[in-house]
């Protein structure tokens, strides 16, 4: 007689507990929580899940578990908190290999002792390495160093049937034709479990300077009846400010925008320069920013909002082609009503917009639809990363996904039984 799922999970030797009220995934409650301590234990859990058709959702620090669609079902929450070891730090080669449950804050502390860093700048230091990869989180310095996908040089993953596969570095078992690390980055746990990751590191910069300047988006006009009103016509084009800085000899590491009052408030541009002659390069950036009529400040400390998302409960991500950040901001401004905040990586053309959690569902729906129409017309995408449950049910989180057919084929290749976070990805993948 075949073992029941609970018995089969217990027989793996992995720590298993019943799920509690704090273990739900976007409102979906699992039956069990698994706490593996090695890649082999992850594989053992997934073998049982595959045999018993148990849906599995991987979780790290839980900081982005509310991103993406709720899973269709969740039987096992696979918690990577016990996969928390730095396996290898080859300081001379600027390479580190870690388990997926190591937090980004812990890793930063360890690397700093050797004068090195993983240049990802994630918003929350409690986020884990695995979660950062699964959600494809990147920070301000993506302009200079790239995203998590760019810095990743190897990965060990566990597939839905329990197969352990590796790519990059000293490959033991690969899956022909796939770069597993890059494929699993941004997959929201729908292809398997990231168990280990190897990254390319950089030396900690000897010096840093931030240069900030603030510009208006609206000007006062007098209409035909003699009444004064504000018009959001962006007297200073954001890209005209950002473009010359991004291509300048100052070689900025990051160019960020903070826009705390989308309706009529000004936006602030902050530029980071790092390394040799940081002060002189910062002064050059200052001149470029002041050429557009704003006074610029230079500081050795970042602005308080640097590297932080503008909100968490209702968060929209806008990605546009390089040079179209002004278009994205104009679409947001045109559709905005109420307390809406935005922040983003200007030169990388990524903007995050935070809406109030208590916004009327109809208003939220119209805002997303209006912004999406304009942004998609400019060749970009609008993704609803997180939203209150009542509102999320009414929204198309992902919009148009051009490669949906390919994504379905990849899902079928890696998870034919649809047990890995089913429904979390576009198209119900």
From TrEMBL:
Family matches, as InterPro entries: FAD-bd_PCMH, FAD-bd_PCMH-like_sf, FAD-bd_PCMH_sub2, FAD-linked_Oxase-like_C, Oxid_FAD_bind_N
Pfam families reported for this sequence: FAD_binding_4
GO molecular function: catalytic activity; FAD binding
Domain of life: Bacteria
PANTHER family assigned to the protein according to its UniProt record, in alphabetical order: D-LACTATE DEHYDROGENASE, GLYCOLATE OXIDASE SUBUNIT GLCE
Annotated keywords: FAD, Flavoprotein
SUPFAM superfamilies reported in the protein's UniProt record: FAD-binding/transporter-associated domain-like (SSF56176), FAD-linked oxidases, C-terminal domain (SSF55103)
Name of the molecule in the record: Glycolate oxidase FAD binding subunit
Ranges where the FAD-binding PCMH-type domain occurs: 25-204
């Amino acid at each position: 007689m075949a073992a029941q799922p609970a018995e089969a999970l217990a027989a793996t030797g992995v720590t298993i507990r019943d799920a509690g009220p704090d273990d739900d995934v976007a409102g979906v409650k699992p039956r069990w929580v698994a706490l593996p301590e090695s890649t082999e234990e992850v594989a053992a859990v997934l073998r049982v899940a595959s045999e018993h058709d148990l849906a599995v959702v991987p979780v790290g620090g839980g900081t982005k578990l509310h991103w993406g669609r709720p899973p269709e079902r969740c039987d096992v929450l696979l918690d990577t908190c016990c996969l928390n070891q730095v396996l290898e730090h080859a300081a001379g080669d600027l390479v580190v290999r870690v388990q997926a449950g190591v937090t980004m804050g812990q890793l930063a502390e360890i690397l700093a002792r050797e004068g090195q860093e993983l240049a990802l700048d994630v918003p929350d230091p409690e986020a884990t390495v695995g979660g950062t990869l699964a959600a494809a989180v990147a920070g301000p310095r993506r302009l200079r160093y790239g995203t998590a996908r760019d810095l990743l040089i190897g990965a060990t993953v566990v597939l839905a049937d329990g197969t352990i596969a590796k790519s990059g570095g000293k490959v033991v078992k690969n899956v022909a034709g796939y770069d597993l690390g890059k494929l699993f980055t941004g997959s929201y746990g729908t292809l398997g479990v990231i168990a280990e990751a190897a990254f390319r590191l950089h030396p900690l910069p000897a010096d840093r300077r931030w240069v900030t300047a603030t510009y208006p988006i609206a000007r006062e006009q007098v209409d035909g009846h003699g009444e004064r009103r504000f018009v959001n016509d962006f007297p200073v084009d954001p890209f005209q400010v950002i473009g010359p800085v991004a291509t300048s000899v100052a070689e900025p590491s990051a160019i960020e925008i903070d826009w705390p009052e989308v309706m009529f408030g000004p936006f602030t541009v902050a530029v980071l320069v790092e390394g040799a002659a940081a002060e002189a390069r910062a002064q050059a950036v200052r001149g470029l920013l002041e050429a557009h009529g704003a006074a610029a400040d230079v500081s050795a400390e970042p602005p308080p909002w640097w590297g932080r998302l503008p909100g968490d409960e209702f968060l929209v991500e806008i990605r546009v082609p390089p040079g179209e950040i002004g278009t994205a901001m104009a679409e947001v401004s045109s559709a905005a009503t109420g307390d809406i905040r935005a922040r983003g990586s200007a030169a990388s053309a990524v903007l995050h917009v935070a809406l109030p959690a208590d916004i009327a569902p109809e208003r939220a729906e119209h805002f997303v639809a209006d912004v999406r129409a304009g942004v998609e017309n400019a060749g970009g995408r609008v993704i609803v990363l997180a939203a209150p449950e009542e509102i999320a049910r009414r929204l198309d989180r992902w919009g148009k996904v051009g490669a949906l057919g390919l994504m379905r084929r990849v899902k079928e290749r890696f998870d034919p039984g649809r047990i890995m976070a089913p429904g979390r990805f576009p198209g119900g993948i």
